Amino acid sequence: MGRDNRKNRKNRWLGLLAIVIALAVWQFIAVVIIRYPFILPAPTDVFAAFVSLVQQGTILLDIEASLIHFAVGLGMALLIGIPIGILMGWDRRFDDFFDPLIELLRPIPPLAWIPFAIIWFGLTASAAGFIIFVGAVFPIIINTYSGFRGVPRVFVEAAKMLGCTKSRDLIRYIAFPAALPSVAAGIRIATGVGWMCLVAAELFGVSNYGLGQKLWFFYSLHQMDSVVVYMIILGLIGLVFDMIFRYYIDRHFLKWRIGEVA
Amino acid sequence: MGKLEIRNLNQSFRKDDGSDLVVLDQISLDVEDKEFVCILGSSGCGKTTLLRLIAGLDEAQSGSIVLDGEEIRGTSSKVGMVFQEYSLFPWRTVIDNIAFGLQMQGVPLDERIRVAEHYLKLVNLTQFRNSYPAELSGGMRQRVAVARALALDPVLLLMDEPFGALDAQTRNMLQKELLEIWEKTKKTIVFITHSVDEAVYLADRIIVLSPRPGRICQIFPADLKRPRDRTSVEFAQVRRQVLDLIGQHCSIQ
């Protein structure tokens, strides 16, 4: 562990250096070469825009609105995707039943659902949530499914020998914990895909606030420095989601895997 | 009690070309209460199939398996099993693995932890109580598997080459420990192995299976006195007898 920590710290300094260099190069290109903030606002312009946006005080409202859209979409994807994935992974008949349908729907890009999202849900948070749901539900179904399919037979048989014989108990005590790493990976992918759908989902004006909504709004005003501010916020929140998975979920719920992977 | 009576057991599997592959052919065998029986045979002779039938994990085509007067249909808490591959639940700590069967029976938490700790002590792993299986060596994992199977206090313990994947030294140590546990708990044990040495060291009786189709070829009483010394002359003699017998009659390749 001690050695790992030292290695991590060294990598972090190098990574930080790369960010500093990228900022410097960006500033140089913007100020010396392009000299036109509409094409490429400099980091200093972006920072100034950030300060004035904070003073206007709507950034938090935007974050809140976007998180609500995201939570609606991801929540529905979990509620629907996990049970379907479990049924398909556990019982061949459900697999045969759902598989063709899912394989037909899955390749449709989530954004292609936007017209129907508006018709079905109107210009509401649910419409944006629906687009995120479409993006998030398939990775969850597929990873849950393959997690349950991949439960080693010996675990199920060992459990049967120990008196765990009902399907419900086998799913709860054996298959679900055994499949959890795969389910968690699916949710992680779904979080990434769902977040990417967010900007487009807010594009068609489902709300007055929202990170994606504001990004389009400032583009229409040609305030490109503010556009960059919202791009960075979107990126940072996506990063936070990923960190939650990497440092919280993996360490607390999947700590039994430590030492197994290496 | 743990008296096992196997009568005219047949099992075959349908092959891809439609013909039947006979795996077990008319197996009849009695195992006495508290007896330690080793089933010896080369790979593919059907010994695992036989054990799975006794465990109730599979159903035989014909014949019967009776334990203490009751026909075996499906798994039961009277029969415990230690698998060949590592079968501990990796998401549960050692103590929770051992307590799993009791949890399934609805035993309250403090009671099942108390019982599990007793069996943890029996396999000498008290200091690994809260470890995860991934943190244990192969030998330790199989000891926990033995404790987990014993925690439900079965009358019959089935072991499917449980030490097959271990190095020779660990293997010898675990054999010795298993005999001590057997002395203490007095279970009936049916132990599968392909190692003559292991069978002679452990068993009261050695059942030699011949391959394709699996038939009982010889039943060989190993009445060496215990504790056995695997370097002694008597041990070597019994070993040679078993090997000769296999070579002459049971055509193990």
Structure description:
The complex is a heterodimer of chains A (262) and B (253). Chain A is an all-alpha fold and 262 residues long. Chain A folds into two domains: 35 residues; 217 residues, MetI-like fold, CATH 1.10.3720.10. Chain A is built from ten helices and no strands. The longest helix of chain A has 37 residues. Chain A is globular and about 75 Å long. Chain B has a domain of 65 residues. In chain B, strand 9 and strand 10 form a beta hairpin. The longest helix of chain B has 18 residues. At the A-B interface, helix 7 and helix 8 of A face strand 6 and helix 2 of B.
Secondary structure elements and pairings:
The complex is a heterodimer of chains A (262) and B (253).
Chain A: H1 2-34, H2 43-56, H3 59-90, H4 92-105, H5 114-121, H6 125-149, H7 153-161, H8 167-203, H9 211-220, H10 224-252
Helix pairs in contact in A: 2-10, 3-4, 3-6, 3-8, 3-9, 5-6, 6-8, 8-9, 8-10, 9-10
Chain B: E1 4-14, E2 20-31, E3 36-40, H1 47-55, E4 62-67, E5 70-71, E6 79-82, H2 94-104, H3 109-122, H4 138-150, E7 156-160, H5 168-185, E8 188-193, H6 196-202, E9 205-210, E10 215-221, H7 233-250
Helix pairs in contact in B: 2-3, 2-4, 3-4, 6-7
